[in-house]
């Protein structure tokens, strides 16, 4: 049970807001540093391309996990996770998918979803490019945590941490993982 869920049952026991750890494109590699960086997070969100199912299982055993499957993910992950995930975190409407593009360059399928569901936060992975940017036209914040696995053309392995408080997204932090970590 997340802090947000617990807080409804026991008001005043937890601080306001939910701390989120966001990652994507692990491609079968979970750096042990992720568990340190996300230690104080209430939930972990993964924007697809987990790799083998044990990556998803380790994250689920660590913290409550929300995720979507990516283009490299096999049937085990696809049978458990959706392609598109829509939910509310505090007062923020969130939409997550793996391959979505970015403001001005969304895939047609994602642009349709954005116009239909009108999220305040859109999250995707796939590109291995870290982005946190406003989409003024659609009145949302776009986040792509980049890639934290070792497979791909990216030069830096990255993830994001942030806090959702009511209808606000605060304290967005970019974390660069040690490029030489082999753990």
Instruction: Tally the structural domains.
Output: 1
User: For the record, what is the CATH homologous superfamily label?
Assistant: Metallo-dependent phosphatases
What is the chain-wise order of helices and strands? HEHEHEHEEHEEEEE
Radius of gyration: 16 Å
If you average the pLDDT, what whole number results? 90
In spatial order, strands of the major sheet run 3-2-1-9-10
Secondary-structure arrangement, i.e. CATH architecture: 4-Layer Sandwich
Estimate the global geometry from the Cα principal axes. globular
What separation lies between the terminal Cα atoms?
29 Å
**Secondary structure category:** alpha/beta
Structure description:
- 21% of the residues lie in helices and 32% in strands.
- It has a single domain, classed as 4-Layer Sandwich (Purple Acid Phosphatase, chain A, domain 2), CATH 3.60.21.10.
- The longest helix has 10 residues, at 53-62.
- The strands form 2 sheets. A 5-stranded mixed beta sheet has the order 3-2-1-9-10. A 5-stranded mixed beta sheet has the order 4-5-6-8-7, with helices on one face.
- The chain has 183 residues and is of the alpha/beta class.
- The relative contact order is 0.20.
- The two termini are 29 Å apart.
């Amino acid at each position: 049970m997340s802090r947000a869920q617990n807080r409804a049952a026991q008001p005043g026991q937890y601080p306001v807001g939910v701390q989120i750890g966001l990652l994507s494109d692990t491609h079968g590699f979970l750096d042990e540093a992720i568990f340190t960086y996300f230690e104080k997070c209430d939930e972990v969100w993964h924007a697809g391309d987990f790799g083998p199912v044990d990556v998803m299982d380790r994250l689920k055993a660590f913290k409550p996990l929300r995720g979507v499957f990516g283009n490299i993910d096999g049937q085990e992950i696809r049978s458990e996770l959706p392609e598109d995930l829509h939910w509310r975190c505090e007062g923020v409407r969130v939409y997550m998918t793996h391959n979505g593009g970015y403001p001005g360059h969304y895939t047609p399928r994602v642009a349709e979803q954005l116009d239909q569901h009108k999220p305040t936060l859109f999250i995707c992975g796939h590109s291995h490019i870290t982005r946190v940017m406003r989409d003024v036209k659609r009145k949302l914040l776009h986040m792509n945590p980049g890639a934290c696995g070792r497979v791909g053309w990216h030069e830096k392995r990255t993830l994001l941490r942030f806090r959702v408080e009511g209808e606000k997204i605060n304290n967005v932090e970019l974390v660069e993982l040690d490029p030489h970590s082999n753990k």
